[in-house]
Amino acid sequence: MKLRSVLFLALMLPFCEAPAGAQEEALAPAASWIPEDAIFALEVLRPAPLLELLCGERTCARVTSLPAYRRNEGTKEFQDFLGLIKLLEAKLGTDWRGALARLTSGGWTFALCPGGAALLIIDGSDADMLQSLHEVLLGIARAEAEKQGEAERVSSSDYAGVTCWTFDGQGAHALIGSRLVLASSQAALRAALDLQAGDGAATLATVPPFQAARLAALQDAAACLYLDLARLRRAPRVQRALEESRQKPLAALLLAGISEALRDSSWLAGALRLEQDTLVLDVTLCETERDPEDPAAFALPATPGDGALPNLGLPRRVAALSLYRDLARFYAAKDDLFPERTSELIFFENMMGIFFTGRELTGEVLAQARPTMRLVVAEQEYDPAIGTPLVQLPAFAAVFELSEPEEFAEVMEEAWQKALGLINFTRGQQALPGLIIDRVDHGDTRMTVAYFSSAGAEERARLHQRYNFRPALARRGEHLILSSAEGLARDLLDALGRDAREAPLPGADTLLELDGGQLASLLEANHATLVEQNMVEKGHTMDEAEAEVSTVIALARLVERLELCAGSVQGAARFRAAARLDLAAPAR
Amino acid sequence: MVHRTPPCRAPEVAPAPASPEQAWLPYQPGDGRPWNLGVAAHLLRRAGFGAGRARLGQALEAGPQGTIDALLRPEADTAAFDRAFDEHEGRAAETGGEAALRSWWLRRMLETPHPLQEKMTVFWLERAAADGARAGEARVLLEHVRLLRQHALGDPRTLLASLLRDPAMLLGHGGEAGRRSRPNERLARHLLENVTLGPGNFSPEDVHEAARALTGGFVQGGRYAFVPREHDAGVKRILGREGNFSGDDLAGILCEQPAAAESLARALYRWLVADEDEPERALLAPLAEAFVREHDFGQLVETVLRSNLFFSARAYRRKIKSPLEYALGLILALEGMVSTTELAQDLAALGQELFRPPSARGWAGGRRWIDEATLARRHNLAADLLRGAGRYGDRLDPYEVARRHGCEREDSAARFLVDLLLQGDADLDAGALLQAAQEAGGNPAATLRAFARALARVPEYQLA
Q: Which residues on A lie below 8 Å from B92 (Cβ)?
């Protein structure tokens, strides 16, 4: 609630009187007003390019074309809001973008401190404009408070020579020249004022990791962020989440490196850059030496040039994940990593025991897979002769590189057919249709495919969802493909045959890529189902559900491509997140 | 500033009819036979799941018999509604399974223009008591409900014959393989004991012979198939009748039995009139006789709903709301729509998971709906529905509803809610409740939410 007040005031910033001239005073950097024990800080150093990206004409055109926007623009509340903006713009003689630019041109700094205290410091270039804005907002707040019979909740007091205001009796703010300081409580505001008065206490500006983050950001970044992981880990919920990820084998496997870095590092620093329409966040965690002999080091590339492979380019790809994980090493260390034998581990071992009868799982099975593995999710194309399922699920596949492909191929084939047999037996017990196993050729590759018979299917456009599955096993050279659908297996075979093996990404152990446009296409294909699901899950009317689902689809389209890369460079964990926004595409 | 609301009045209803003949005569409001908000709400609770203020107003305007006419034969386009919901449910069954189907059925109950049909569909669901866990596919359950809905107010002989070819019914009672060499007595016993005749009205031989009549029926790939070579074509003796009976014949024989007529009349009495008192045989006799004569269940329902007995003190607030009635009643009264996915889970926690009856006897109902644990859960459910945030979000807003009906001030909105939810039946100090709600609230919307939560906890609100 307090945070909401802070944000409300921040959002209302642009609506103020035109400036009559600015009287600037030199103020200490915003970080010097923030206590050193801040858990999180985000400093926007160059607001202009970010404002252009987030509030520019193209973004606004995309936002106003969103179904949720169109649905709400007719409501009274929304019309009132637009009316207020128009009124203020007319009064100010400037548009809201211009006002926003002038009031924030010096940058924004947001910080969260222990106990939930929040601080937002906004530096502008026009003190008069800020003062005028405050007068307008003060008038609105007073009128609202009086209407509700609580006039006393809007008040002011002096502290350290500064007038401190509150509009709701909880949040507090102060104006110092062209700087606006918003705090979630009076105490937080006073603490900031004490720091700026130079009471001798250490501030965030003196914290070395923050200094380093800021220094890196000053070169070319629009913003920098800092997170005190040591303090964050003291929060019970964070502790619990980290502990849970450690205890779950699948989570431990997928998040290897990431969860260790979050567990062991004392801080995290990031720089946000803007490269045309792409937002890039580079994150560095403090240097922590990772012991190559540690049981959890199964994701640590064996040599400096080693790492996860680039993802495979495929038609209709929704997401791709490339990992560097030594599975044999992971499984060999299971007793150290997971002292408690979980039910999923027991199930995994039982199944592997059935599929790979007579073989030692670590040395004779898992060791056959090299640490480089790739997972892919793709939208499906359906054979018109079979039909289209009512719910269109994406196909997914895993591609492994085998150490001894010739020797292991038959072992894998046997295991695959056993798995299909087990599925068929179980489905048969439930009186459900089973899979038919077939061998088909794709070029010079023979693969094993299993499918559900479509004979007698009545509605070809509304097939049961089991027709999303046509599991396939294929091998090309050293690559082994396990796919939920034959089509994806064929695409993978083509990609592996077409592209020479690319060099690994040095130091990277995880590379995730998401294609927003393809995700949107997949969601669109299931539009009716998603709308119906939304209706019963949220109690929405069909119109409301349509608007929400369409908005999600539009947002997915907005993120043309999302890329997350994790790894380590010289002992320090590094993450890179890049989101390319599709601002130019017409709204559909 | 707290404005004290006047003390709540005692319910005004007609006294219980003196004789069985008078009991089933149509109710005509008049001296000592009121037609007021309480009685109208009573009708809409029993013949549906409750109603909002506007619907109550329509009922007051139309009078009891006019309202019952509309309940039996709605003016709204029920066919269009059914088509749309059949489509939703069909897709839900294919994509989300039993849970999704349950969510959509609850949604249907909340939006249907024909609440009586849906209420009677639940009646038959309880009697059929097919275990959904054995159905395999949600499509099978969907067909089961459609069948029950189609015949809910029709000829029970047709319903029973259809149920004997219904995969959900057969699977739910272990009757999916009706082999001649091993007739399924479990399904046959259920038909005789729980669906039609009632305990003590048949012999073990009747069960065995009925099972023989059912042989030949199989469920294959979720569909019913009759395999002639597996049907026992020999002569069977069932309830004094002799012949080469099939499942259809069995349905006819069972429905002709006076015991079946009385058993169904008793069940209908418990469903629509009162679930704790034991009706005298003489009281039920006219209903049972009409059933044997006409085999029209819809007519039976109509007779009960139109009767003096139904509108008398013998019926008024004489049923304990099932979790379904409790939750849907609150939602309908507050003119909102919530997540029925969440609601289905909460109803299951309260003991009423649709498609999952606790036994072949269905849900025991009545007083068994409420014990210390389930009462606390009911209160929690009301609190969750009215919290304004969390799992159910802010979809129910009592203050907004009150304002919509012209009650802007907190005290008038509180009075509106008392009338809407309790029709003044509870002996409660609404002023004190409102004051407590104001202390917990903070703004009118929060205050009225807290007030509505308090009303939903009142003992009288647990009664239908």
A: 532, 536
**A148 contact residues in B (CB cutoff 8 A):** 443
pLDDT top residue among B204 and A292: B204
Chain A residues within 8 A of B337 when measuring between CB atoms: 539-541
**Contact flag B340-A430 (C-beta cutoff 8 Å):** no
Exposure of B214 in the CB half-sphere (CA atoms within 13 A):
36
Tell me the residues of B at the A interface, defined by beta carbons under 8 Å apart: 88, 91-92, 94-96, 100, 103-104, 106-107, 136-137, 219-222, 336-342, 392-393, 395, 443
Place of tokens 């393809």: A518
pLDDT per residue over B216-231, tens digit each? Answer: 999 988 899 999 999 9
- The single-letter code of the amino acid at B179 is R
Q: Does the distance separating the beta carbons of A391 and B100 come in below 8 Å?
A: no
d(CA B293, CA B81) in angstroms, rounded, equals 33
Per-residue pLDDT, A18:
32
The answer on pLDDT for B462 being more than 80 is yes
CB atoms B136 and A533 under 8 Å: no
**Cα B180 from Cα B216, distance rounded (Å):** 7
Closest approach of A430 to chain B, Cα-based (Å): 7
**pLDDT tens figures, A21-72:** 334 457 888 999 999 999 999 999 889 888 888 888 888 888 888 877 888 8
CB A194 within 8 A of CB A201: yes
CB atoms A465 and B95 under 8 Å: yes
Looking at the predicted structure, is the pLDDT value of residue A323 above 50? Answer: yes
The ipTM is 0.92
Taking the model in full, what pTM does it have?
0.84
Q: What residue segments make up the domains of chain A, in order of their start?
A: 2-206, 309-503
- Whether A520 contacts A549, CB under 8 Å: no
Q: Which chain B residues touch A529 with a CB distance below 8 Å?
A: 91, 95
For residues B142 and B463, what is the distance between their CA atoms, to the nearest angstrom? 30
Which chain A residue is nearest to residue B136, measuring alpha carbons? Answer: A430
Instruction: Report the C-alpha gap between B40 and B311 in whole angstroms.
Output: 9
Give the side-chain half-sphere CA count within 13 A for A550. Answer: 17
Q: Which residues of B touch A540 (CB under 8 A)?
A: 337
The reply to whether residue A533 touches residue B96, judged by beta carbons under 8 angstroms, is: yes
Question: How far apart, in whole angstroms, are the C-alpha atoms of residue A212 and residue A148?
Answer: 49
CA distances from B336 to A22, B330, B418 (A): 53, 9, 18
Interface test with A, best of B94, B109, B386, B409 (most A CBs within 10 A): B94
Nearest chain A residue to B93 by CA distance is A464
Would you call A432 and B104 a contact, using CB atoms and an 8 Å cutoff? no
Reduced to 3 states, what is the DSSP secondary structure of residue B38?
A: helix
Answer whether B44's CB lies under 8 Å from B332's CB. no
Mutation target for B interface from A147, A458, A536: give the one with most B CBs within 10 A: A536
Burial A432-441 (b: 16+ CB within 10 A, else e): bebbeeeeee
- Per-residue model confidence (pLDDT) at position A17: 32
Confidence of residue A458 (pLDDT cuts 50, 70, 90): confident
- pLDDT tens per residue, range B42-83: 999 999 999 999 999 999 999 999 999 999 999 988 999 999
Distance CA(B41)–CA(B50), nearest Å, equals 7
Note the Cα A144 to chain centre separation in Å.
38
Distance CA A137, CA A325 (A): 56
